[in-house]
């Protein structure tokens, strides 16, 4: 167990990462000295067993003895809970782990975003940022800050922690979002190390590369752009219910205690930088979700106690919740899932006509398709959605021997396997061909 009195706070040590390519300069990463000893040794111990941990077995992970690190995380979790009502215990664990992970940014390959979103005002989004400002590493508030000012403030050696409030004023409408496309690009690029932006500087317009890698918390009303949400740990805040009480945040009274805890967390984390860079924990999720959650799981493994179990449960449950939300979102895989249910409900025919498919889609009262656009989902709109997944309509032969425009079931199989592999119960009943409503034709 480490001593309760940490060393005075100082800047974190540096983990050296391999040289990367520079945009606009082919082969630039191969120039100069090829210092082999500058590379991070990624052959360190792997935490956990080989293979993917299943969500059903996460609760059985044994808790280790409490440590100084786990007690620090417990204290930080308690401090956050004093000022905000989290949507779930898992969300509170994720907030805590994310804040601690900012003190080890030099160890991470990916910088997870914390998307703090809510359906309306007064859900606690800004209050959570108030607490994070006082507990994360080198906070940089970016309300109405230009992208140029942000990437000029990011250094590779010691990146700040970006905190973006009122993100709905940046991405809230299509017109506004188009004007802030550079900000979205910056937040997307900064999720992964060695992604730069190149700008000309000075009177002689010399090209200069700017780092983008930095952890970021982004708060706003409504969902953020899909590309940011896909790189984020999503905290869906809610307005406090009657009887739910929190402590008002007062800077003069509360900041000193938060700063003291922040400094103790930083002092605990600083000697662990190299170990954190070498760990490759077993994750309960895959792909980008694993990239995003890995820093939090590593922090939990370093802290010990109950945190390795809590981190993996939070990861599995919150990623699954967002996957379900994406399936329900019309711009995601919802259309594929609904068409899959229709084919299953019709007995898995080889094909369905476009008219019949549109009619059956509009019969689900809980789906968005009947009210899609001005007159419901059209053949052209359906064609545009499915084209994103490589699915095109064609001439299909019907049971009565006629040919119509429609979709072959086998064209959906690969997309179903990739985007909506879970088969849901189907209530759709066969509709007599005479009741099928004609749809607007003219597929693109």
Automatic annotation (TrEMBL):
InterPro entries, alphabetized: DUF3631
Domain DUF3631: 236-419
Protein name: DUF3631 domain-containing protein
